[in-house]
Amino acid sequence: MRHLRASAAIALALSACATPARMHDEAQLNMVATGCGLALGELIQDESEKKLLLMIRQEPRADQRLCVAKWARKNGLRAVFVENIQFPGGGS
User: Fold this and answer.
1) Is the pLDDT of residue 9 over 80?
2) Does an H or E element contain 3, and which?
3) I need a surface site. Which of 4, 43, 53, 56 has the fewest CB within 10 A?
4) Mind listing the pLDDT tens digit for each residue in 19-73?
5) Which residues fall within 8 angstroms of residue 23, CB to CB, at 6 or more apart?
6) For residues 64 and 36, is the Cβ–Cβ distance under 8 A?
7) For residues 66 and 68, what is the distance between their CA atoms, to the nearest angstrom?
8) Of residues 4 and 81, which shows the higher confidence score?
């Protein structure tokens, strides 16, 4: 019984630390994007994966990646960097 109580206490403590991800609106993401030297719309957050902050940009600079990663971490998100996108009909 004592072991069960200890396990329950640990689980409760860990769940208190986990904060649910919240959706940031387009204006907030655009403000962060421009503050990090990105264009409007290059930072997105998908409703189905709220914990992910997607940066979609060809060849981002290291300082841009760092800026986005720091903001994501501060806001409980994981930064994902999408590069080298091949668009249909864009040539080879």
Assistant:
1) no
2) helix 2-17
3) 4
4) 567 899 999 999 999 999 999 999 999 889 999 999 999 899 999 999 999 999 9
5) 45, 47, 50
6) yes
7) 6
8) 81
Average pLDDT of the segment spanning 69-90: 87
| Contacts (Cβ under 8 Å, ≥6 apart) of 46 | 52, 54
The Cα–Cα gap between 29 and 34 comes to: 9
Asked if residue 8 lies in contact with residue 20, where contact means CB atoms within 8 angstroms, the answer is no
Decide: 44 and 54 in contact? Cβ < 8 Å: yes
**In this structure, are residues 51 and 78 in contact, taking their beta carbons and an 8 Å threshold?**
yes
